[in-house]
Write a structure and sequence with these properties.
This protein is α/β, with parallel strands linked by helices and about 375 residues long. It has two domains: about 5-100 and about 150-210, Distorted Sandwich (Spo0b-associated Gtp-binding Protein, Chain: A); about 215-385, Rossmann fold, CATH 3.40.50. The chain has helices at about 55-60, 225-230, 280-285, 310-320, 345-355, 370-385, and strands at about 5-10, 45-50, 65, 85-90, 95, 125-130, 135-140, 155-160, 165-170, 200-210, 215-220, 250-255, 260-265, 295-300, 330-335, 360.
């Protein structure tokens, strides 16, 4: 199971309360105040780890609660601090703070009768006037506010964990309360009160994973992206002769004879309207935002009845409408399925309709042109890094 977005609740540990105590020892039957301080609550800490590739661990543990601090004790002994809760997340995780949702009123235990269907003219309407104009508010159950596709409105970005071992304190633990020994003065020598511990920070957060890869494969469904990834790396994604075989991003490692390595991300197929999140477009497009080089893979044989030049323009439109910065990235246009009889004629038409655009013809299923492709993506990544 691949999870790249999850909503969690995090709460740091509460501080331990201070102690109210007085020293009672042999030969000191009426000693002074000796209440110890409470311990600090534990923090909730996120740590980036390159050994992880999705957020499935947080899917099963959406509530992250650190240990509370221990209470103070007599004879001036302070309470032990709560242990920090260390949560490992994959590199490339973004942390969004979600707005606090007010508590809903208690529901009526008795089931409400089902409402009868009413016409638009019979719906209850609240009419209010103010500012020189009247307003009508539909009070019927059918008048509902539109909901977001993710179910959670992002408030602000608070962390972007990209490097291995990078840590971020999501919630800080509360301070421990002071014992009564801290409140003794010359006029108040026997204070019988102490401080309670401070509550730990808490809140709702959204963890969003954006894979870190140097090369991103972008194309329509059934264009051969998974076949190409399997041909250039040791990755073994599912390959089948039907669209939407790849349902989540795949990462492959391309190795060269001189021990150089490149990471390549295979993004599931995009469709028209992906920038509007049609077909989960946002869930796929966000994984190429960190790529240094984009590879536009075209089905030059037109297997699904689409023209390759139309696919090319549509892919550029979807990338630009989603994020204009993606169009400024170095990109490589690759014509796949050149083993088909109609592919040569389509390639000539493509070059006439899209002039001054270099195209690399390959046949990934037969490893034709793969060596040239590996060389070009390495050169493109090196050039992008040197900029």
């Amino acid at each position: 199971m691949f999870i790249d977005e999850i909503r969690i609740f995090a709460r740091a540990g509460h501080g331990g309360k201070g102690c109210v105590a007085f020293l009672r020892e042999t030969f000191r039957p009426k000693g002074g105040p000796s209440g110890g301080n409470g311990g600090r609550g534990g923090n909730v800490v996120l740590q980036a780890d390159h050994d992880l590739n999705n957020l499935v661990a947080q899917y099963y543990t959406p509530r992250l609660i650190a240990e509370n601090g221990h209470a103070g004790m007599g004879k001036g002994m302070d309470g032990h601090a709560g242990d920090d809760l260390l949560v490992k997340v994959p590199c490339g995780t973004l942390v969004w703070r979600l707005p606090t949702v007010p508590a809903s009123p208690p529901e009526n235990k008795s089931p409400a009768p089902a409402p009868l269907p009413v016409s638009a003219s019979q719906r209850p309407v609240l009419r209010a006037s103010g500012g020189g104009r009247a307003m009508e508010i539909d009070l019927s159950a059918e008048a509902e506010a539109p909901s977001t596709s993710t179910g959670a409105a992002k408030e602000d970005l608070i962390a972007d964990l990209t490097g291995h071992g990078q840590q971020f304190i999501l919630c800080r633990g509360g301070r421990g309360g002071l014992g009564n020994r801290n409140f003794a003065t010359s006029r108040r020598q026997t204070p019988r009160f102490a401080q309670p511990g401070e509550p730990g920070e808490e809140g709702d957060f959204l963890l969003e994973l954006r894979l870190i890869a140097e090369v991103g494969l972008v194309g329509y469904p059934n264009a051969g992206k998974s076949t190409l990834l399997a041909a250039i790396s040791q990755a073994r994604p599912k390959i089948a002769p039907y669209p939407f075989t790849t349902l989540h991003p795949q990462i492959g490692m391309v190795e060269y004879p001189d021990w150089h390595r490149l990471t390549v991300c295979d993004v599931p197929g995009l469709i028209a309207g992906a920038h509007r999140n049609v077909g989960l477009g946002h869930a796929f497009l966000r994984h190429i935002e960190r790529c240094k080089v984009l590879v536009l893979l075209l089905d030059m044989a037109g297997t699904d009845g689409r023209a390759p030049w139309d696919d090319y323009h549509q892919l550029l439109d979807e990338l630009g409408l989603y994020d204009r910065r993606l169009l400024a990235r170095p990109r490589l246009v690759v014509a796949n399925k050149m083993d088909e009889p109609v592919a040569e004629a389509n390639l000539r038409k493509f070059k006439r309709r899209v002039p001054r655009t270099p195209v690399l013809p390959i046949a990934a299923v037969f490893d034709e042109g793969i060596g040239r492709f590996r060389t070009l993506i390495r050169e493109a990544v090196a050039e992008a890094v040197s900029r």
